[in-house]
Amino acid sequence: MTDSLKAVHDEVVACARCPRLASWRNEAAHEPPARYAGQRYWAKPLPGFGDPNARLVVVGLAPAAHGGNRTGRIFTGDRSGDWLFRALHKAGYANQPTSVASDDGLKLKDCYVCAIVRCAPPANKPTPEERDNCIGYTVRELRLLRRARAILALGSYAWDGVLRAASELGAHVKPKPRFGHGATVEVGKWTLVGSYHPSQQNTFTGTLTERMFDEAIAKARAASRRHA
């Protein structure tokens, strides 16, 4: 059978490979913080989101327990998403600078956003087995996003996950390139660009500034168009 992004989407949403993650995402939905009390949570794995003809792919670690796990769209409804979509809008990839709900009208052009692990993990720390259960979805997405030429990895976990996925697609890079903000390496047909993750831990401390994030996205954008 011919694979498709819709098939990946449907399989991700129905996935039940990781009992620990299923339990955690449901617990988060049943015991939300006061600010989300009464809201109906998505509480299922999250597929990728964006333009199937994208030249840029943005890859994160996993959904947030009260962000994507609540809203049903990756990087939506949390502070990391506020940073990401503000920057993508500024760079011309998003039609609006905010992402608060799955039906808020956000559309991406020339960009696709996904995560290495598709369920919210406790303490943002998936196990190696959980990562391996999920990595095949990223492999399939990268195979199906035929125009993609640049990947922006948000954090070292996403960087390592992209390298694993690319290796399964025949792109072997040795020695393993070291993650860093602004680090760039050619991996098969893609240029992989690293960025610190726009988590509160990084943005509140100034480890990641808006200027730094904009520059990383600009670097990935230039790479995606250079190879077009």
Top-tier CATH class: Alpha Beta
- Helical element count? 8
Which homologous superfamily in CATH is the superfamily? Uracil-DNA glycosylase-like domain
- At CATH level 3, the topology is Uracil-DNA Glycosylase, subunit E
Mass-distribution shape: globular
Strand order of the largest sheet: 1-3-2-4-6-5
Q: Can you tell me about this structure?
A:
With about 230 residues, the chain is an alpha/beta fold. It has one domain: Uracil-DNA glycosylase-like domain (Uracil-DNA Glycosylase, subunit E), CATH 3.40.470. The chain is about 40% helix and about 10% strand. The protein is built from eight helices and six strands. It has helices at about 5-15, 20-30, 70, 80-90, 130-145, 155-170, 200-205, 210-225; strands spanning about 50, 55-60, 110-115, 150-155, 185, 190-195. Strand 5 (about 185) and strand 6 form a beta hairpin.
Task: Quickly list its features.
8 helices, six-stranded mixed β-sheet, about 230 residues, alpha/beta, Uracil-DNA Glycosylase, subunit E
